[in-house]
Task: inverse folding
């Protein structure tokens, strides 16, 4: 009996095997619909925005307190101030030593840290769901009562000087630093890291001063995602920790006024480099402009993922590089686009030509319908995959708030991607993917690649130090 | 700092899966050709992760063929009989998915994450390359260049990485299978032939040497039918021989200083040959790793970063730098990588680490610290279960390494059961100077000679 039923199973499966046609991609059902989990939004009387998302799949909570206090607010002579504030914010408050904060955090099965982006500062926390209340106590304490103890500031300075040196030993960092400088000129987005001189100048008072000026409830949003208590109870917890935080007038953001893009070639000399890091980039429109989605499609087709033009041609066809990609980084007040690859010194000339040719190609002809469909699918799919984890959704919501985007941004994201048409893509490419108006930043050994670069035009050589 | 070995950024840090508040469904079975399959449905988000692991890695390489397992991994993306070059990338990404592969000392893995309606597409692609990989001169030549370029990008042109991939294994291991470079030398890569690729494919990329885990939004009966249809008639092969990883008698872990002209800040790797996987001491070492380095209140942070102000950054793992406790297969070390304040010598840093270990040996963990560390381990385990890909990876690892994917739901309990006395005993037995290898990486002035020499190796 047993034998017989096994035989039936085997033959049924064999039949299934025969019916599969391997010669072409399988027919598949339509893409399933997915609705983002609902986002509940409210605001405390002191102005603190609150976003709540219930996700009960895992007994965890993820929290973000995002405030308009990023590196663009750094004074000109103190690049890295916001970063320093974020780093020392969790190292002591009026009632807790750094050690107490770290031990309490770890005891929640959690994490607590702060970081500064270009536009905003974010205090990030996480914990086992049962410890939400205690996590909020800690987040509120560091946001409001940090004391920036001298010994912690001194340790931060000492270690940041060293880690800055470590950063500067990475060619990618040197390229990013130079590209920001070239694209954003003298505007506040032009620096991506502190200088050693600015680190030396930091002290408790300066850090506290930045905090007093920029960290305020009316300047921020608290985002909670996870297995949350009932709505009324969560709101009570939040009000208990953040309700008494006094509102205050906050500084207007500095004007971001980058220079008009123009062709310039900068070679950052890094003697001994065995390859050249090529970055070609320029100013681009922000996520609030109608050009954002068409340009997102264009840059993704150019260098997003393994199916992109740059990957297929520069890596797979020519074998010039391991990595060939593009990026489009939209801050709140300005954005930049760049095409990036790293190639061995001997092929710098043809590789450089290939990058510029791929950029030209985006504007040169309307995108074929198949490619357009594929790229739109790719962007929508990646967006969906990013929402699998609490951290993924928290980061999307934080980025939305940091950049001042409308609250339906995530909900309408996929539809806006899908609505992009080929003419819009080409128009955006013509305007922004323009090698003739782009800066070329190359990090490499000037004695090996300088001559090849000079064939493109005048080269400014700077030292890697 | 992360170590992106090969085409992928490997996600470390997910400890173990757990019975603590979450149970992951696990349905394992085997096809007639030996392919192990693990299904774990979850309908929360319409995404499906398809993860294939082949039981072969760099430690199966032969002399004169360093880096071959990784070169072969690249060849797996070069097309197959029904899905010519470019199809795999194109089909996955143009349907809204992502994919990658990565090579490790003992295994090689491939994944596709897609909107869930495209499960069949992923199975079609993975089965077609398992069945009929396109192996030819042109693809091999192209991928040799890509791999060499990867070596320049991720190792030769970076601080620390060349020392870690080429030198570190020679200090901790005496057996060539374990001590040779995973990324390989240019010379060995250049001399690899199409015949080598074909032989490797036939020997190791057979269904009976692989495990397939699928996690996400699918219906089990339909998935089983598709799996049988696509993979069921791929012929099995004789079971490949596992490399002999026995360490030679009389080998002693060593200390070496590497001058690194790319580096500006001194670094030290301190590592100790570890215990047998899933032995009581292995769980104790997981706990020790958390005590020393997990979270903001870890001992390395509180005592050395803050107290002595000698350490600037650190990371540690069982199976560092190419994996984690999850995919640890003995013999492997427990190792810590530290960037340190240049006012301290590398030797002083090693002594300080050894003092921390002496503390572990001499003083039983307080109830408070034990509770805190357990909570951290529990939380990071649960966090590591969130993404379907992370679950698929764990299921497939447990299936192929331990023959039991349901360990995803029980390994956490084994770690949480470790007692303070076991921690003391494991530290005494394993974290001793006699079992210790040390790699000091010192910044060297002037143009990088080390890196440019690599061209001629």
Result:
């Amino acid at each position: 009996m047993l034998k017989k039923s096994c035989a039936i199973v085997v033959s049924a499966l064999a039949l299934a095997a025969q019916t599969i046609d391997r010669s072409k991609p399988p027919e598949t059902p339509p893409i399933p619909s997915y609705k983002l989990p609902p986002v509940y939004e409210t605001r405390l009387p002191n102005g603190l925005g609150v976003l709540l998302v219930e996700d009960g799949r895992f007994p965890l909570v993820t929290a973000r307190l995002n405030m308009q206090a990023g590196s663009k607010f750094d004074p000109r002579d103190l690049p890295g101030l916001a970063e320093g504030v974020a780093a020392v914010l969790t190292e002591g408050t009026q009632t807790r030593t750094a050690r107490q904060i770290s031990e309490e955090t770890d005891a929640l099965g959690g994490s607590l840290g702060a970081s500064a982006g270009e536009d905003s500062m974010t205090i990030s926390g996480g914990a086992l769901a049962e410890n939400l209340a205690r996590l909020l106590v800690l987040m509120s304490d560091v946001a409001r009562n940090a004391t920036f103890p001298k010994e912690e500031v001194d340790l931060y300075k000492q270690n940041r000087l060293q880690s800055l040196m470590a950063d500067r030993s990475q060619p990618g960092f040197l390229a990013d630093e130079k590209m920001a400088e070239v694209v954003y000129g003298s505007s506040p987005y032009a620096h991506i890291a502190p200088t050693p001189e600015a680190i030396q100048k930091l002290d408790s008072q300066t850090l506290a001063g930045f905090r007093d000026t920029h960290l305020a409830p009316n300047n921020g949003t608290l985002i909670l995602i996870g297995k949350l208590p009932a709505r009324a109870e969560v709101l009570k917890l939040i009000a208990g920790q953040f309700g008494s935080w006094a509102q205050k007038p906050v500084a207007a953001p500095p004007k971001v006024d980058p220079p008009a893009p123009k062709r310039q070639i900068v070679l950052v000399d890094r003697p001994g480099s065995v390859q050249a890091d090529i970055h070609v980039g320029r100013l681009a429109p922000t996520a609030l402009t109608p050009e954002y989605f068409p340009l997102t499609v264009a840059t993704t087709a150019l260098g997003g993922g393994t199916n992109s033009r740059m990957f297929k041609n520069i890596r797979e066809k020519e074998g010039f590089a391991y990595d060939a990609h593009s990026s489009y980084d939209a801050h709140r007040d300005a954005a930049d686009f760049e095409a990036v690859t790293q190639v061995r010194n001997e092929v710098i000339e043809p590789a450089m030509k290939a990058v510029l040719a791929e950029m030209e190609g985006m504007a040169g002809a309307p995108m074929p319908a198949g490619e357009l469909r594929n790229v739109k699918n790719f962007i929508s799919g990646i967006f969906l995959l990013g929402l699998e984890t609490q951290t993924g959704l928290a980061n999307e919501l934080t980025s939305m708030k940091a950049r001042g985007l409308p609250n339906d941004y995530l909900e309408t994201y996929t539809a806006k991607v899908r609505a992009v048409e080929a003419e819009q893509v080409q128009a955006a490419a013509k305007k922004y993917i323009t090698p003739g108006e782009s800066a070329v930043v190359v990090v490499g050994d000037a004695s090996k690649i300088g001559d090849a670069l000079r064939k493109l035009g005048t080269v400014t050589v700077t030292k890697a130090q | 700092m992360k170590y992106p070995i090969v085409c992928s950024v490997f996600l470390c840090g997910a400890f173990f899966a757990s019975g603590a508040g979450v149970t992951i469904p696990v349905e394992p079975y085997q096809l007639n050709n030996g392919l192990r399959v693990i299904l774990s449905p979850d309908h929360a988000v319409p995404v499906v992760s398809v993860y294939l692991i082949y039981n072969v890695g760099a430690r199966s390489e032969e002399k004169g063929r360093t880096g071959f397992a990784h070169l072969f991994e690249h060849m797996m993306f070069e097309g197959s009989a029904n899905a010519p070059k470019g199809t795999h990338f194109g089909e996955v990404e143009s349907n809204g998915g992502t994919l990658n592969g990565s090579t490790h000392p003992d295994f090689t893995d491939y994944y596709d994450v897609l909107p869930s309606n495209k499960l069949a597409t992923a199975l079609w692609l993975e089965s077609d390359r398992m069945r009929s990989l396109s192996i030819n001169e042109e693809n091999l030549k192209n991928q040799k260049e890509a791999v060499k370029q990867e070596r320049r990008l991720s190792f030769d042109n970076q601080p620390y990485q060349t020392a870690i991939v080429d030198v570190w294994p020679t200090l901790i291991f005496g057996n060539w299978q374990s001590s040779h470079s995973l990324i390989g030398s240019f010379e060995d890569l250049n001399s690899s032939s199409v015949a080598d690729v074909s032989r490797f494919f036939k020997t190791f990329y057979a269904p009976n040497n692989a495990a397939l885990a699928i996690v996400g939004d699918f219906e089990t009966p339909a998935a089983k039918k598709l799996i049988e249809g696509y993979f069921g008639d791929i012929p099995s092969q004789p079971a490949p021989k596992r490399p002999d990883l026995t360490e030679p008698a009389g080998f002693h872990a060593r200390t070496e200083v590497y001058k690194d002209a790319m580096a500006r800040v001194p670094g030290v790797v301190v590592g100790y040959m570890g215990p047998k996987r899933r032995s009581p001491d292995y769980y104790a070492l997981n706990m020790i790793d958390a005590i020393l380095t997990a979270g903001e209140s870890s001992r390395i942070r509180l005592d050395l970063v803050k107290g002595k102000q000698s350490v600037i950054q650190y990371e540690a793992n069982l199976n560092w730098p190419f994996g984690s406790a999850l995919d640890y297969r003995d013999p492997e070390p427990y190792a810590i990588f530290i960037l340190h304040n240049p006012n301290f010598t590398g030797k002083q840093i090693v002594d300080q680490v050894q003092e921390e270990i002496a503390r572990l040996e001499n003083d039983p963990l307080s109830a408070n610290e034990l509770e805190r560390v357990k909570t951290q381990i529990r939380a990071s385990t649960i966090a590591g279960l969130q993404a379907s890909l992370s679950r698929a990876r764990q299921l497939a690892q447990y299936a192929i390494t331990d023959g039991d994917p349901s360990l995803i739901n029980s390994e956490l309990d084994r770690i949480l059961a470790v007692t303070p006395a076991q921690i003391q005993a494991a530290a005494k037995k394993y974290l001793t100077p006699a079992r210790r290898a040390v790699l000091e990486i010192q910044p060297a002035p002037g143009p990088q000679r080390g890196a440019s020499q690599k061209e001629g190796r």
